[in-house]
Amino acid sequence: MKKGLMEDHGSRNIDVEALENSLKAKLCGDSPLSAKCCIFRVHELLRRHKPEAYQPDIVSIGPFHGSGELFEPMKKVKLCCLGLFSSLYIALYATIKSLTTLVLNFFSTLSSMSDYCEAYTNHTHDEKILHMLDLIKSAIVVPFRKFESTESKYALPHATALLEAGIEFRRSSVDGLMNIDFKDGVLTIPQLAIAEITEPLFRNLIAFEQCYHGRMDQVASYALLMDNLISSSKDVVFLCDKQIIFDWFSAEEVSQFFSKLHTDTCIIKFFYGGLCAEVNKYYEARWNK
User: Residue 90 contacts by C-beta under 8 Å, 6 or more apart in sequence?
Assistant: First the structure.
């Protein structure tokens, strides 16, 4: 057999050297995704569950979805708004901070976002805001209390089971939707208003976390935790009575809401592992008395 050749199981000669050179050429190519990239097309693995959640209805903002007859009527409006905005920005909004305030003021008109937009301005922020979706994520997750723990288990009994074990539920008054706390048998959770915009908003935030290396799985962790707490419409009714959930839909719809959000996601770091460990420890101790 000639040097550099080998036989496969089908008795064909394979040029090993040529195959090696071909693979090297492919491996040394440029990455298809720039390290600076922060705007992505949502992967089909996530998109397939609800395609319309990632598709704009009236106007598109950003590099995707700009073409097509659906958005033609809004192109002139966008250019007009751009001209108006540019003059206002030069005259009144000369800093990035003021631009951020302008965007937050707009989203604060939505009842499901108003508290988070207001709370965002009361805290300092270390990370650079990349774009509008990143700003909304920051408004929702800041401040975020971290439960230091090596525990990575996701499992947690549902709300009514925790109630039966003597754990009390209270609506939290602290800033930040995801600032959930557990102390002395009391689980405090900020109120979530579930409206028509909530599902597409959360889906896009989670998709951003899944795609961008610079953002952690905080929203996906929240969805997984709430999915654990809500097993049935009975849990939804209980959490509504405690004013932890305010919803515009049926209890049955809300009971399935969170499980759909984190389907097919990869949560590298579950942010509530420490909290779950504390709750489970208290829960098991109460039942073992």
Answer: none
Measure the CA–CA gap between 235 and 244, rounded to whole angstroms.
11
Name the helix (H) or strand (E) containing 157: none
List the beta bridge partners of residue 186.
168, 183
CB 255 within 8 A of CB 235: yes
Rounded to whole angstroms, the Cα distance separating 214 from 128 reads: 10
Contact 134, 256 (CB under 8 A): no
Do residues 262 and 206 touch, judged by C-beta distance below 8 A? Answer: yes
Q: Pairing relation of β-strands 186-189 and 181-183?
A: antiparallel
* Residues 6 or more apart in contact with residue 238 via CB below 8 angstroms: 159, 160, 163, 169
pLDDT category of residue 85 using cuts at 50, 70 and 90: low
Q: Which of 10-14, 62-66, 182-186, 262-266 has the lowest mean pLDDT?
A: 10-14
Question: Which residue type sits at 48?
Answer: R
pLDDT in tens, 170-212: 998 877 788 899 999 999 999 998 888 889 999 999 999 998 8
Which residues are 5's β-sheet partners?
15
Q: Report pLDDT digits (tens) over 90-102.
A: 555 555 556 677 7
pTM over 0.85: no
- With CA atoms as reference, report the closest residue to 132 among 32, 188, 208: 208
CA–CA separation, 37 and 48 (whole Å): 23
Question: Residue 125: pLDDT above 70?
Answer: no
- Which residue, among 237, 236, 225, 177, has the nearest Cα to 201 in the 3D structure? 177
Q: Which residue has the tokens 């009971």?
A: 255
Q: Coil, strand, or helix at residue 74?
A: helix
Strand duo 192-194 + 186-189: pairing: unpaired
**pLDDT, average across residues 140-148:** 66
Token pair in block for residue 164: 């039966």
